[in-house]
Each structure stands twice: as structure tokens, then as C-alpha cells.
């Protein structure tokens, strides 16, 4: 897999930085966000480094996005949320802070997380 040395998410994939793994296969890695917006907040990333959606080859995107329904269902089963937000930030002004493509899966619980 093509990876960059100074990317924290590449380091997470390699195991150089510890993470709470949710799911892994040959193409993608999913782990809990270190700063949980809500309980179960998960990030899913391609193992091949791409800095954002503009930098992502179609086959990498296909593999990444194809895992989302399965992961959403796993989160639904594990955490029993009432809904889930799925989002992807591209560019600093759009809220991207880590420049390795990632999809946020944020389970929603209604009133207790402020969105009731
Ligand atoms: P962004 O703001 O780029 O859309 O999302 C980056 C996410 O990565 C943030 O929600 C942030 O909490 C998470 N994050 C940053 N560094 C680490 C880390 O070292 N470990 C984990 N698990 N999450 C991280
Ligand atoms: Zn990377």
C-alpha cells in the first residue's frame, strides 16, 4: 500500500500509533475517533494514502464507501443509536484536520447527545 511517513492515519494503519480498531480488511481500516463526538464515533479510512476526496482514485473510493453500510449496521447493533451521521471533510476550511481521507460515522442518540 502506498503510504506517507508523516501521516498519522498511515501510522495508525501500520500500528505505529495505537488505535481502538473497529474493523480491518485488505483495503480499509476502521477505528474509534480519539475525540468522540458521540459514543461509537468511528473513522473509516483507505489503507492506500489519499489526502482528500480530490486525491482519491475511483477504485480506492469504491472500496472505502462500499464498507460503509456494513460498518453502519455494526455500529447500529453495538450501540443502538436512533440514527447516524456519515460525513467526510475535505480542505481545512471545510473542517478537515487530518489529511488522509476518512469518513466519520457518528451515531446519534437523540436528546442525550443534544439532538433530541
Ligand atoms: P477531520 O477533522 O479531519 O474531519 O477529522 C479528523 C478526526 O481524526 C478528528 O475527529 C480527530 O479527533 C481524529 N483524530 C486525530 N488524531 C487522531 C488519533 O491519533 N487517533 C484517533 N483515533 N483519532 C484521531
Ligand atoms: Zn496517510
UniProtKB/TrEMBL annotation:
<dbReference type="GO" id="GO:0009117">
    <property type="term" value="P:nucleotide metabolic process"/>
</dbReference>
<feature type="active site" description="Tele-AMP-histidine intermediate">
    <location>
        <position position="102"/>
    </location>
</feature>
<protein>
    <submittedName>
        <fullName>HIT family protein</fullName>
    </submittedName>
</protein>
<feature type="domain" description="HIT">
    <location>
        <begin position="8"/>
        <end position="115"/>
    </location>
</feature>
<dbReference type="GO" id="GO:0003824">
    <property type="term" value="F:catalytic activity"/>
</dbReference>
<feature type="short sequence motif" description="Histidine triad motif">
    <location>
        <begin position="100"/>
        <end position="104"/>
    </location>
</feature>
Amino acid at each position: 500500500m502506498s503510504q506517507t511517513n508523516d501521516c498519522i492515519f498511515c501510522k495508525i494503519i501500520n500500528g505505529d500509533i495505537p488505535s481502538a480498531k473497529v474493523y480491518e480488511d485488505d483495503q480499509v481500516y476502521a477505528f474509534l475517533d480519539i475525540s468522540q463526538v458521540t459514543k461509537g464515533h468511528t473513522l473509516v479510512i483507505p489503507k492506500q494514502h489519499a489526502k482528500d476526496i480530490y486525491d482519491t482514485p475511483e477504485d480506492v473510493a469504491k472500496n472505502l464507501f462500499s464498507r460503509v453500510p456494513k460498518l453502519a449496521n455494526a455500529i447500529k447493533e453495538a450501540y443502538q443509536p436512533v440514527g447516524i451521521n456519515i460525513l467526510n471533510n475535505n480542505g481545512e476550511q471545510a473542517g478537515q484536520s487530518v489529511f488522509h481521507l476518512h469518513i466519520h460515522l457518528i451515531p446519534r442518540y437523540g436528546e442525550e447527545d443534544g439532538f433530541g
